[in-house]
Every structure is written in structure tokens, then in C-alpha cells.
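INFO batch 0412 | record 1 of 1 | parsing
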Amino acid sequence: MTKNYKSVLFSNVVMHQRLIPLKHRFQYSLISLYLNYDELKSLEKKISFFSYNKFNIFSFYEKDHGYRDNSSLKKFVTDILTKNSIKFKKIKFSILCFPRIFGYVFNPLSVIFCFDSNDLIAILYEVKNTSNEQHTYCFASKQKKVKSIYKHQCKKIFYVSPFVEMNCNYKFSTRVPSNKLSFLIEQFNFKNEKILVAAQNGKKIEFTSLTIIKSFFKNPLMTFKVILGIHYQALQIFFKGGKYYSRNKNK
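INFO prediction complete | emitting C-alpha cells
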């Protein structure tokens, strides 16, 4: 590729570990996209096996994110920043997510890094559950000073796993992706006991047609593995005696 693109791939290891009331740990390897939104149309023209809102080996669809109604992801980002009183003059953003592979994807978590020119102004954590629902946690970066790790915390308000209670708090620790990718999510119960840790760590890979092909053959069923893995791990937790928390439909 002749142009210096900001969009890259990441080869990741994703880890989940439950600590109490039972112990359960697993990890797996995945490929992530880190896409500069303004580059999407250009990337589609330059990279044979990547498409924007179209079927391909790897693709990115706007309807998988934001309002999920085929409207612009940029509109969603600007709307949520405005709703949270986060000011900006010239918004730019990049999204970390899994690619659609031959048309299928499930993203348990996508992270959107929002910049005003070159200053990070917010990080959006877009969480999905297997009921096809979604919630976005929005955190402002009030200081323009660049940090190696951005830390945020909030109350859990979105139902995800049936084996984790709703009365919990999250702590997020995130680095802006560069040569490496790193973020950590810790979950605490109402007693402030750490009950779950989830982490994703990755290394940058150049975004080319060749690396897409290599990534595909290394892990051809990756996106299917994500959704199957969620149900498989849930089954293991069930047989270990995990407590089932029924869903409050108002959540």
C-alpha cells in the first residue's frame, strides 16, 4: 500500500477469568480491525479482500454499530458526544472491532476512540449481548494531556451474562491502540469484591490484502467461534454450579 493508513489489524489474545463465587478461566486468539472511519472508502478501493458495507472475506458494516439501522456511525458518535456534553470542533474517530468474515460477526465489545483533531476527547465502549441488544458506555477525556492508560469506572446498567448479577461496577483500563493493543475490564460486586476480569492484548499487523488472507487461513471460523465460545463457556459455568440471574426486563 502506498498510502500511510492509520487503520490496522491486531492479532489478539482475549482472556476472561471469573474469580468468585466460582473460578473459571479461558482465552482464545482473534483478529481485530482498528479502523479510522475517514479511511473506510479508500481502504475498500485499495484492499482486495476488504469491503465497506459489502460482502467480502473481511468487511465492516455500519449497521453492526451505533444506531444499527444503516445510518451513519459518525452521526451516532456525534449524537452521543453531544448528549454527554462533550464538546468538539472537528470530530475524528477510530473503532476497534471484529471484522465480518464472509458476512458474519458478533462483537461482544467494540471500542470507539474519539478525537477532536488529535486530542482524545472520549472513549465509547459498545457492549452487545446475545439477545441482539446493545448499550454504549461513554467516558470523556477531560484533560488534553496524553496518558499511557485511560481509566474509567461506572455502574453496570446492561444485562450481559446470566451468571453475573446486575448490581455490579466496572473499571476500565485502556490504551489508545498504536503498535500494541491493551485493555482491561474488571467487574466488582456490591461488596467491592472483584468477581471477573476480561482482557485483550494484541500486536499490530499491517492492513493489506495479504495479511487478511493470512489471518483468514490462520483462523477461518473466528467470528463463529466467538458466538459458539460464549455459549460453550456458559454451559461450563452452569455445570460448575454458577448461579443464574434472571433478567429484569426493565434493564
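INFO post-check: The mean pLDDT is 93.
INFO record closed
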